[in-house]
């Protein structure tokens, strides 16, 4: 098995974390770096990660997250939020993200136009925009979980939460929203068996 497939086999949605075991800061930094390096649509990097460490905040979040124990028991809790307003077409942020590629001005203008055409039908609806930016977060989260598994760090992706409550507890800035949450730490119990559909049930060649 390659290191990657070993990590895929090791990773499971950890339900019970060891509250005594902390992820070393340098390893957690490496996980955050993997999120930073993840790909995003048009390279807009809409994610803004909040690492929640304060016990009182964790406790408040737990009640907004279906009372899931992972929220308070994990070593590091990462809330993936998105800055939706800043990635709207035509903003200075979007221009800067294209300009940093070192393109001539007319090419930047072309990119701005293509981006506008793509995003207009999405950004006209707040929910569609939030969903679009959230999709990027899932890529970053997924990379973090798999990389964590190579370091024998467990994780649990968490979608079971009341979005509005989580946003209120974290007091998010206007235009920001919560996409998904991920708990990281170390398992207490052996991992459950990975149940999956067969390849032939999910893949078609045409
Ligand atoms: C986007 C997403 C959201 C999830 N939300 C939760 C959650 O809120 N609580 C939980 O215990 N597990 C959650 N899970 C874990 C899944 O239930 C789990 O990944 C799936 O059952 C497969 O099991 P495995 O990851 O252990 O192989 C989530 C998984 C994903 C990908």
From TrEMBL:
What are this entry's molecular-function GO terms?
oxidoreductase activity
User: Could you tell me which InterPro entries the record lists for this protein?
Assistant: NfsB-like, Nitroreductase, Nitroreductase-like
* Biological classification of the source: Bacteria, Pseudomonadati, Campylobacterota, Epsilonproteobacteria, Campylobacterales
Q: Which residues cross the membrane?
A: none
Which cofactors, by name? Answer: FMN
Domain Nitroreductase span(s) in chain numbering? 9-186
- Note whether Transport occurs among the keywords: no
**What is this protein called in UniProt?**
Nitroreductase
The alphabetized UniProt keywords are:
Flavoprotein, FMN, NADP, Oxidoreductase
- Whether Glycosyltransferase counts among this entry's keywords is no
